[in-house]
Write a structure and sequence with these properties.
There is one protein chain. This protein is an alpha+beta fold and 227 residues long. It has nine helices and seven strands. It has helices at residues 9-12, 16-22, 33-49, 61-69, 79-86, 100-110, 114-140, 160-167, 216-226, and strands spanning 3-6, 53-58, 89-96, 144-148, 175-176, 182-183, 187-195. Strands 1-2-3-7-4 form a five-stranded antiparallel β-sheet, sandwiched between helices. It binds iron/sulfur cluster. Iron/sulfur cluster is lined by residues 79, 153, 204, 206, 208-209, 212, 214-217. The site of iron/sulfur cluster (SF4) has 11 residues, from helix 9.
């Protein structure tokens, strides 16, 4: 049965430093004071307008096999298809910080207040990621738990359809459009995979890795090996 979790914004709000680092600022002491003022305002608005909420449900490997297959558009080989086989527990999840924050971001871009819009946008993405991290810790229970999402690393974005059919994130206000994009925009969905840490370690030499712009798997794998 799905569980709906309301979170406190203070538990998932990123720091000002994290927002700046997310934007590629190397030395935050070099940030001009006018931008610091914009950042302060952005953090206040982010806190006011975000409504963090999550839905989570345990899922059997047999059910996930069908969900992962989705519309049959996944890469022939992917890290997740191998990781799942060695997993101990799976939970489907979806998280959002609501639609008000998107309106706030758009409002500032429309008013040519680019720094504020950009800071809130980055902060909102980090807040959603922080909710996922809370869920990872919540289900970990001595295992190493990481989230994997449709649209990344060989799991085709159309996989969202079956994931949504099973989990019903509409219960917390998240819907899917025909292109499999979520509304509200600042939402994340996927599967939390729990098991021994080494199941999350893999060689990132899949065909789709040639087009990767983030190589985020490296950071994730490093975080496991350091833990
Ligand atoms: S290199 Fe990029 S696409 Fe390949 S597994 Fe890592 S994050 Fe995914």
């Amino acid at each position: 049965m799905a569980e709906i979790i309301n979170l406190l914004i203070d538990d998932v709000l990123p720091s000002k430093e994290d927002v700046q680092k997310f934007q590629g600022v190397k030395n935050i002491n070099d940030t001009p004071s006018i931008l610091i003022d914009s950042l302060e305002l952005s953090m206040t608005l982010l806190k006011e307008k975000s409504k963090p909420i999550a839905i989570i449900e345990e899922c059997s490997k047999a059910d996930f096999k069908d969900i992962y297959l989705g519309e049959g558009q996944n890469a022939a080989e992917s890290p997740l298809s191998h990781i799942i086989k060695k997993a101990e527990k799976l939970h489907l999840f979806a998280v959002t910080i609501g639609g008000e924050i998107t309106k706030e971001i758009n409002k500032h871009f429309d008013q040519n207040e680019f720094p504020i819009g950009s800071f809130i946008d980055s902060g909102a993405s980090l807040t959603a990621d922080n909710i996922v991290a809370v869920l990872e810790s919540r289900v970990a229970n001595q295992s190493t738990t990481l989230a994997y999402s449709p649209g990344y690393c060989g799991w085709h974005v159309s996989g969202q359809k079956k994931l949504f059919q099973f989990l019903r994130p509409d219960k917390i206000g998240i819907t899917l459009n025909d292109s499999c994009l979520m509304t509200p925009l600042k939402s994340v969905s996927g599967v939390l995979v729990s098991g021994p840490s080494d199941i999350h370690i893999f060689d990132n030499n899949y065909s789709f890795c040639e087009e990767c712009t983030t190589y985020s798997c490296i950071i994730r794998m490093k975080s496991i090996t350091k833990a």
